[in-house]
Every structure is written in C-alpha cells, then in structure tokens.
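Deliverable D5.2: sample structural annotation.
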Amino acid sequence: MDGAVVRIFITPVGGDTMQPVEEIEALAGCGLRGDRYCKRTGYWTDVDECEVTLIEAECLEEIRAKTGINVEEGEHRRNLVTRGVRLDDLLGKRFQVGKAVLEYDRPRPPCGHVETLTEAGMTRALINRGGICARVVTSGMIRPNDPIVVL
C-alpha cells in the first residue's frame, strides 16, 4: 500500500478549532495525546467517540472542487488526512502509521454538529466521504509523510 499521512489535526476541547501539528503521539486505548477524545472533552465523549479519525485527502480535494466548502484546515474535524490509500480497504485490518499501530474500528459518517462548527453544506459534503475511526493498538509517534502499512 502506497498511502501516507499528509496532515495531522487535533483540538483539546470539543467544538474548538482543529489545529495542525507536525507530530503527535498515539496512545494505546486512548487516542492522540492532547486531542479532545483522549482528554475526554469531545462533543461525542461517552456517546459515539473515536480514538483516531482518518479522512482521505482525495475526498477533501473533491469536496473543495465541487462545492467550494473549506476543508483544507481541519474543518472536516478529522485527525489524520491520508493520501494514496482507500480507507474502506482497511476494514478488518491493523495498520502501522509511523511508530503507532492502529486498527480499523468503523466508518465515520458526518453529523450535523460538524456543520454547526463550520459552514452550511459541510455535513452533506462529507456524506460517503467522512472517513473512518480507528483504535490505537500500539502507542507511537505519527508525523506527516509517515507511510500507512497494512500488517
């Protein structure tokens, strides 16, 4: 698989703007250090939380081109932006990203809440392009350009 992580976003509190980071530590059974779900401060904490969310850069480019909706700076509310890998193909698999090992959890369809934080049309734009949730199996650092390797 030729995929890689191209951008990383986190936010310490649910509802706050997603911030790009140059590296992040994935923590087994928790998520990304400093991110809202690992800190238990996310909007969906205890309801429908994901340790780590991933979305395809190719989908974001398509959204921007077809709708004009801003998705380049984390407005999609996902943690890892990937390139060169179909995330649906990771179903049932563990995969290494940098030094961390993640495991496909489930699809991550968009919710109406994302639109209240961004702009009109965001929820509809992310339908069938919302990415996936993954669990952290083995802790480790993740950086942009780290390859995604199916184990």
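Annotation notes: The chain has one domain: 4-150. The mean pLDDT is 88.
The annotation will be released with the project's public dataset once the embargo ends.
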